[in-house]
UniProtKB/TrEMBL annotation:
Its cofactor is Mg(2+). Keywords: Isomerase, Magnesium, Metal-binding, Phosphoprotein. The keyword Transmembrane does not apply. Belongs to the phosphohexose mutase family. Pfam families: PGM_PMM_I, PGM_PMM_II, PGM_PMM_III, PGM_PMM_IV. Residues 1-16 have a biased composition (Low complexity). Signal peptide: none annotated. Residues 69-209, 254-341, 370-472 form the Alpha-D-phosphohexomutase alpha/beta/alpha domain. It comes from Herbiconiux moechotypicola. It comes from the Bacteria. CDD domains: PGM2 (cd05799). The keyword Isomerase applies. Residues 1-20 are annotated as: Disordered. This is Phospho-sugar mutase.
Amino acid sequence: MTSSDDAADATDTADTPNDVEVLTEAALSWLDQDPDPETRDELGALLRRVGANLPGAADELRSRFGSRLEFGTAGLRGELAAGPNRMNRVLVGQAAAGLAAYLLEHAHPDAPPSVVIGYDGRKNSRVFAVDTAELMAGAGVRAVLLPRLLPTPLVAFAVRDLGVSAGVMVTASHNPPRDNGYKVYLGGADDGSQIVPPADGEIAAHILRVAAERDLRELPRSEAYEVAGDDVVERYVAATAAVAAVRAHPEPLVAETGLSVVYTAMHGVGWETFARVLDRAGFERPVLVTEQIEPDPDFPTVAFPNPEEPGALDLALAAARAAGADLVVANDPDADRLAIAIPDPSRDEGYRALTGNEVGQLLGWRAAEAAVAAEAAASSTLACSIVSSPGLGAVAEAYGLGFTETLTGFKWVSRASGLVFGYEEALGYLVNPATVRDKDGISAAVAFLDLARSLAAEGRTIADRLHEFAERFGHYGSAQISLRVTDLSQIGRVMQRLRSDPPAEVAGLRVLGIDDLSRGDGGVPASDVLRLRFDGARVMVRPSGTEPKLKIYLDAWSREGSVAERRDAVVEALARLEGGMRDRIA
C-alpha cells in the first residue's frame, strides 16, 4: 500500500516539459467516467486553476495524476478526492473489477466465486461498498453486502462463516477523517486472512489492466447482489461472547465485584456490536463516552482518531475519573484495535494507557493458561510481529507452547501454525482464531474484561497482574522512535549506513549481533528490517509500510532483582538506546 503522502512526495517534480498537458488529458478522461458529482466538481475546479496557471495547481495535478495508489497486501488507502492517487469511486470501481477478474480466474469450475462486502461509518464507505457489490455481481461474482455499517472483524468472520471466496472491507481504520480504504481477505485455504504475496500482485495486475483498458462506464453492473441478514452478525456475537466462557464462569461476576468500566467507540462503529456481545457474555453495560459513541465521519472530538495518539483518550479518561472507573476500554473507529487504561495515582490524569505490548502479554498469558488447562499446550502457538515485545516468547516457553515471530501485519500473524493467540504492539490482538483470522478489538475487549473480572473476584487488579508478570517472566519495556521525512531517499540512506557501517555499540551498550532480514535472517520472509541484539535489549529498524517514516522499535528486559529493580534497569536501558539511536540516524 502506498499512502497519498508517499506518492505526492514522489511526484512533486516533472521530468518532461509537457507533463501538465499529458496529465490534464488524463484528468479530463477521468472526469468523463467519474460518477461522483462531488469529485467531478472539485476536479473541474482544479483543471480551471491549472488552465489559469495559478500557483500550486500544477503540483496538485501531478500529485493526483502523476502516479496511483498501489494495491498491496494492505489493499488501498488514501485521501478522498479525484484522481488515481486518491480514494474515489473510479479507483474503487477499478479495484472491484480487478478483484472480480482475479476471483473468476482462480475459481473452481464447479464453484462460482463469491465475496462478502462490509463498510464502516467513514465518508463514502457505503457508496464504495455498494459500487463493489454491483460491479462484482455484474462480473458474475456472487456478492453479499453486510446489512449495515459494522466493525472490520465482521468481514473477516463472515468470509469463513458464509464460506465465500473473498471479503472486502471499506475502511481507513484510524486514519484521518479525509481518508478511506479498501481491505481484502481471502477464503478457502486462507481462512479469511488478509491477502499476502503472490495474491496481492496478481490482484494489482488485474486492477491495472482494468484501469488501462476499460472505462468505468463500460463495466457491467447489476443490482442482483444479496444483502446478508442479521443472522451473520448474531453468529459473530455468539462466537465472540464465548471468548469469555474460557474460564467457565457459572454466573456473571461484574455485578458481584463492582468492576466499573468506561467505553469509547472513538466516533466509530464498535458500540452496537460490542453492546450485544457484552449482553450475551453476561457483562454489565459500561459507562459510555457519549460524545464519541455514535459513528461520525468527521471525528469532531479528536484531532486524530487513533487511541495511540496523544489526547485521543482525554474524554474517556475524564469519564473514568468522574465514575471512579477501574478500567477504560477503547476501540478505534472500525473496532479492530483495542486500547486499555488503568488507574494510576502517580499520573496527573489519574490513569495510564497500557502499551500494546502490556495488553498483548497479559492476553497471551491468559491464552497460555487456557491451553494448558485444555491439555493442548504442545499443539498451541503464541505469535507476535517481529517488532512486538519478546515477552510473549517468555510466556510461551514457561508454559510449553510454541512461539512464532512474523513480519508486521496480521496477514502474517494470523498464519502462524497452531495459533491460539497473536498480537502486534500497535494495539492489535487476535484472541479467537477459530472464528476471526485478523485483529479484533471487540473479542480482545471481551477477553480483557474477562481477565479483569476474574482478578476482581479475587480482590486483585490489572496492575497487580502486571506486577505478577514482571515477577514471573521478567520486566519488559518498549519505546519507539519515528523519523518522518520529506525526502524518501533519506530513509534508504540511513538503512544503507547501518548496513555498511554497523555499530559495535550504542550508548555504551555492546551490540552482540545484527540480523539483516532483507537477507532472510530471522526465519521470516525477506524484509527491509535490521535487528540489533544486545544483552537484555533489542533494536528493530525498518521503513514504515504506510507512511514516509523510519521506525525504530526499542525493547529491553530484566529478570534480575526485585520488580522495582527490574523496572529501573529497563527504563535506564531504553533511555540509553533511544539517545544512542537518535544520534545514529541524525
